[in-house]
Write a structure and sequence with these properties.
Helix content: under 10%
Number of domains: 5
Strand content: 25-35%
Structural class: mainly beta
Oligomer: single chain
Number of strands: 18
Largest sheet: 3 strands, antiparallel
Order of helices and strands: HEEEEEEHEEEEEEHEEEEEE
């Protein structure tokens, strides 16, 4: 008669019952609710069945995972295996920051630009800094939205002096200095080569544009008139290079008088 030997691992008897083999003769004291089953594992080690004790509203997550974006409470005693119990916690630190007149930074520090930054003692959620910002835009200038136009495009903009999404706008005053000297601002860094006799003054306009003083060169007997006006009823001669601004030099048409002899 032949004998058949079947080798069955004692560990299998444990896992078959939903258990896990312990590293000792007893079940761990932490990590969920441990139940020691009657069956043993190899070398007499305990067979333990674990039940998570994470309460309602919480959940078991891997121990290396982040709980509620870093704001939640973690308890390693309530979950089985390499897991922890994560209980979300509503973040209220942001409110504590805004109540003090601050704003939450995107990092653990306050920005180095954008007004004068004061790091308050209270932190925001995820240990981000709570920063109180004061504008440093000087007198005569003002903070405006970063997408706004500063002084019609002529002003000087500094993004380091204002808080939030604003820039410090300093109006350009050079245009005023030009007109005070009887000049007009050119569209470029030079004065036009036409339009009367142009003199480039020493003072510049905004954006380094030239300040030009113009003198009409319209000769005696002629006169400067608006460019859209009619010269001598349409009979005159027009020259656009002799007058300043939006004017032209109008020279009336003169007919020589003569006598007709009908004899």
């Amino acid at each position: 008669m032949a004998l058949l030997y079947v080798l069955v691992s004692a560990n299998y008897g444990c896992t078959e019952r939903g258990g896990i083999c312990s590293n000792s003769l007893d079940c761990p004291m932490n990590g969920g609710e441990q139940e020691k089953l009657e069956v043993n594992c190899c070398k007499g080690k305990a067979c333990c069945k674990c039940t998570d004790k994470c309460p309602e509203g919480s959940s078991c997550i891997p121990s290396n995972a982040t709980c509620d974006g870093g704001n939640g409470k973690v308890d390693p005693l309530l979950c089985c295996g390499d897991q922890v119990c994560c209980t979300p916690t509503p973040c209220v630190e942001n409110n504590g920051c805004t109540e003090r007149g601050g704003m939450c930074s995107d990092s653990s520090d306050c920005p180095t630009t954008g007004g004068e930054q004061d790091k308050l003692e209270v932190n925001c959620c995820q240990a981000k800094a709570c920063c109180n910002c004061t504008d440093k835009c000087p007198e005569g200038s003002s903070c405006i939205p970063s997408n706004a136009t500063c002084d019609g495009g002529n002003g000087i903009v500094d993004s380091s002096l204002c808080c939030d999404d604003q820039v410090c706008c300093t109006p350009c005053v050079e245009n005023n200095r030009c007109t005070e000297r009887g000049g007009m601002c050119s569209d470029s860094s030079d004065c036009p080569t036409t339009d009367g006799e142009q003199e480039k003054l020493e003072v510049n306009c905004c954006q380094e544009k030239a300040c030009c003083n113009c003198t009409d060169k319209c000769p005696e007997g002629s006169s400067c008139i608006p460019s859209n006006a009619t010269c001598d009823g349409g009979n005159g001669i027009v020259d656009s290079s002799l007058c300043c601004g939006d004017q032209v030099c109008c020279t009336p048409c003169v007919f020589d008088s003569f006598k007709i002899d009908n004899r």
